[in-house]
Amino acid sequence: MIFLLFGCGWIVLCGFAALLPLLPSRWSGTIAVVGIVGGSMLGLPSAVSKVLGGTPELASMVWSIPGGTLSVALDALSGFFLVPIYLVCTLAAFYGLEYLRSSPRGNSLGVFWCSYNLLMVSMIVVILAKNGILFLLAWETMALTSFFLVTFENERPEVQAAGWIYLVATHLGTAFLLVLFLFLGEAAGSYDFDRFPPVVQFLPSGGLFLLALVGFGTKAGFVPFHVWLPEAHPAAPSHVSAVMSGLMIKTGIYGLVRIVTLLGPPSTWWGVLLVGLGVSSGILGVLFALAQHDLKRLLAYHSVENIGIILTGLGLGLLGLSLHLPALAALGFAGGLLHVLNHALFKSLLFLSAGAVAHATGTRELDQLGGLAKRMPVTCFFFLIGAAAISGLPPLNGFISEFLIYLGAFSTVTAHSALVALGPALVAVAGLALIGGFAAACFTKAFGIVFLGEPRDPHTPEGHEPGALMLVPMGILALSCVVIGIFPAGLLPAMETVVASFTLQTKDDLSVILQETVEPLLILSLAALLFLSLAGGFVVLRRRLLRRRPVEETVTWDCGYAQPTPRMQYTASSFAQPFVARFAIFLRTRHLGGLPKGFFPRMASLSTKTPDVFRQSLYAPLFLGIEKGLHYLQVLQRGRVQVYVLYIVLALVALLTWTRK
Amino acid sequence: MDATALLAPLAALVLAPLFLGIINRTKAFFAGRHGQPLFQLYFDLQKLLGKGATYSRTSTWIVRGGPIIGLAALMVVVLLVPLGGLSGLVRFPGDLLLFAYLLSMARFFTVLAALDVGSSFEGMGASREVFFSTLTEPTLMLSLAVLAHQSHSLSLSSALGAVTVTSWLQHGTSLVLVFVALLVVCLAENARIPIDDPNTHLELTMIHEVMVLDHGGPDLAFILYGSALKLWIFASLVVGLVLPVRTGVAFLDLGSMLLGMGLLAIVLGCIESTMARLRLLRVPNLLVGATTLATLALVLAVR
To answer: Which of A413, A533, B116, B213 is least surrounded by CB atoms within 10 angstroms?
Structure first.
């Protein structure tokens, strides 16, 4: 672990070095990347070794801050979250080197890279921290550095607005965590995680669970705490979106799992609540995504959906723990956590390739794009892999984690478990099936509109393939999606170690269950290989059949109409229209413009916009109400120093009498 | 592995086009026509495989690869599906998930191939296809959950193999509901009346047919064969459910199942001849209705 800590130090050092004045701005990125690569090479081996079953390590030392020791620990669970952090941060950094090269903001690149490196280290420290205060410090650093990264292009008003929303949301979440840690720390007399008691005075452990759920949920971004995601992700540069969506929101999941393990045996309702939140988050997230026209906003809503899937898995796992159903617990946790890794891979792949599109064409509006498959064939292929993976299609990695969650849920069905387990499990099954259908619809839309057909807007630049620094990271991510999808059984031992590290299940119980899934996973590999070879066979067959026959190219068939134009193509809005119309009750899509009027109509236009329902109908009224209420407090604000001094004296006296009591 | 495991996939691969032939002959009978030969689809396939191809200038490799990926996925599915008591070639706990997701992968690439040519008509079909299939997905999964619940198994072969006369006597109500739900899924997934009309001549009202307008030659042959396989796959689920003949003697089972498949083809032909297709706006109501029935079946099963 000492190497890992040195690695963190090196990343921070290089981050600050990127800030050095007088440094040519294009060097700052290189220096930062040198730090990241070095730090990852130092840290990755120890993280991987823990996932593969190495003994957990703990390092602690006394520090001047009260409330325990400065302690960090690396166990299998931490290692499991660290691996994607190292991998994706490094790949995204290389991508960023080229992505930012054309940025007009040469001078602030130093600040950008310094924030990037600090964000990476703060995520690592969040995962490692074993002390509440250290955890919160790292958590706050993570929030602030990512805020700086989101507002990189801060001359655009929408980016400023997004930054503020993010900053407010993340601090509201932190407030809940602060209360949670205060309760735990006061009861223990120390903020070290090991000393935290499962029960505290005044508050049942269910209350602590709810505090953790809101606090970490705001970072993870499940419904209804997701409102900052669709604002912040599109505003940030694409590789930052990849890091935030693929990794940073997962620290919320990590925190939730970590705290839940400290709270003693879980109650049944925790699991039920998580499954409910997970399924509704999944369905609403993907439904909102379907109605979006901005490619990155669409992807941001898919993060809400996937966090929902992860949460469903974890909820089933908790349910299994509390009801002593080992199959449900093991497969629920294994599926949920594996989805953390898988989502980190395919979502960052999607954000990076969406960034390549935005970089090449200067727009993220789906309806201005089209036909990019011809100009950006490699990016198109990578996006397709990401799209198929996120839709949960075999033989890619998204299918594997959903498969495990399904197996867990179905284990209650075949075992005829009690209704308290069976009910949520069946909700999860139906929910996952529905989410899968929606996700496939959404990604056929996103991929089809952006890459297929003809360019929809003549004013959009033609587009071009990005350079190797952007393509190779995408390629590595795509490859890992495929490899996990085709050879999933190789990951089972790792999942076994990770799940065993935080559940109270004895390891034997777990291994029996996960051993039973080895066979299905091996057959999945065989099926994947069979599918690929069949497809290959058909390719050869088709080529041989067409060898000496005429193969012509002509205009698209449009019912005999000889001159179709690109403007006649289906758009993103028209593709999603059946969904938007059917689910209008959730989406509240606004239609601007409308049907042509009169006998000789001059022009008609129609556009749709789907703002976030929760933001519009929950948070906006809530915060406006709070603001209105606070107006009444303005009577206290007299603008006279003497009055303020009086307030201070009164407050002091009141506090003194209260403590003297 | 014994040779009987090969019977179900072989029957599917060989007889799937005939199934469509029977439906078409039934429809012709109702219309008072003589109708096309029973083996017409075989002739069509042979003819198409011998043709050249024409592609839209807009299209890319997706339009060429879509039919191939779709057919490859469906052929893997064929290996998983049992024919009543005859188990599929491949069976493992969880194969019903692979079944459902491979089908959705085939659909994913059909839809992309439709979008590839940039035609509004095909976009329209693609949009409808994803919408309706999203609504059928939970129905399929919940129906399979009922079967999994009754058989204590997560494999299609065991789940359908466990449907016997006794289980019909014990859980008849629940199984009837599953049957109706699966029948609706079968009609919707295979573009049959009342959801979609395979014989319609107006692009504006099509769903599945319009998506493949720009395919021709060997690609169209792959698509047509794939659709025939898909229809066979869903039909064999339905027949396996309603025909609880599980003698254990392979050839008796096979014979009765094939008879059942023939009967189902005639029933589908009757449905198509005696019903009008639903208005597109009404289709979701039918599909959600099927989901409700499947949920009800599940409630009855687990209560």
So the answer is: A533
